[in-house]
């Protein structure tokens, strides 16, 4: 019998939520008449609740106090979910599965003892899109032959424009952006310096883009505010939109950008998924390129074990793979 009440676990950042749209679309296509609830963080509620694949959003996990955990577990039992798809596959989501004993629902994921285990030992080394597609394949969802690594479905963000009440907010002009423009996203994962190209180099890149007639636009979350100040000390004409765009506005603008430069942080991930030509600068000593590199219709990775060796000209040369015209305008 096809499950009618489904819970999908998507714990993580807004970048994780955007990538989760790909498996959510596959789940909606497979379970057309089911009610799909997503368990996620509060910061992802507005985005996921507007998506065409989700009926409800729950933000009551994780909990720190045992009394709150007990209340949540009791409420999950009352919900009587027929199937749970754990797309997070973390210790936190595995812990939730264990707490549901002895009345555990059918469960897809990496939790020991679940009904639909994703048993590939290399699953946590896969890119999230590949891991999600492989996990759903074990549940009979998707093409029988599966997807080759790197060719798993990308998130479909075509619906974003329809949920923005004021279309003007998706235009560069509304935000003071002059086209052509490039997004610079200096914020790395958890703002770890070892996973981020030096801030001074972003400032040098901003100056070079200005000389080529391309407006540099700084983007990121609150953790990037100080980084933006440092960059603008070098390139005062760079437009600072850090912490000033919501995810819908950023997606709309990313589609119109000439280039997006970042690491494997949320902004680069979302820009790539939106279709922006994206260059990700990644340190293989700190993270797996295969696992972390942003995916999209036009993405390229610049890999170096020492970020100090990556020059602005290296970035621009690599960017030609996704934006062939970027070097046509000669610096004055």
From TrEMBL:
- Please tell me whether the keyword Glycoprotein is annotated for this protein: no
Q: Which UniProt keywords are given for this protein, alphabetically ordered?
A: Glycosyltransferase, Membrane, Transferase, Transmembrane, Transmembrane helix
| Record-level GO BP terms | lipopolysaccharide core region biosynthetic process
Q: Name one Pfam family in it.
A: Glyco_transf_9
Which GO molecular function, any one, fits this protein according to its record? ADP-heptose-lipopolysaccharide heptosyltransferase activity
Q: Name one GO cellular component term.
A: cytosol
- Indicate whether DNA-binding appears among the record's keywords: no
Classify the source by domain of life.
Bacteria
Ranges in a coiled coil: none
Give the protein name, as stated in the record. Uncharacterized protein
User: What high-level taxonomic lineage is stated for the organism?
Assistant: Bacteria, Pseudomonadati, Pseudomonadota, Alphaproteobacteria, Caulobacterales
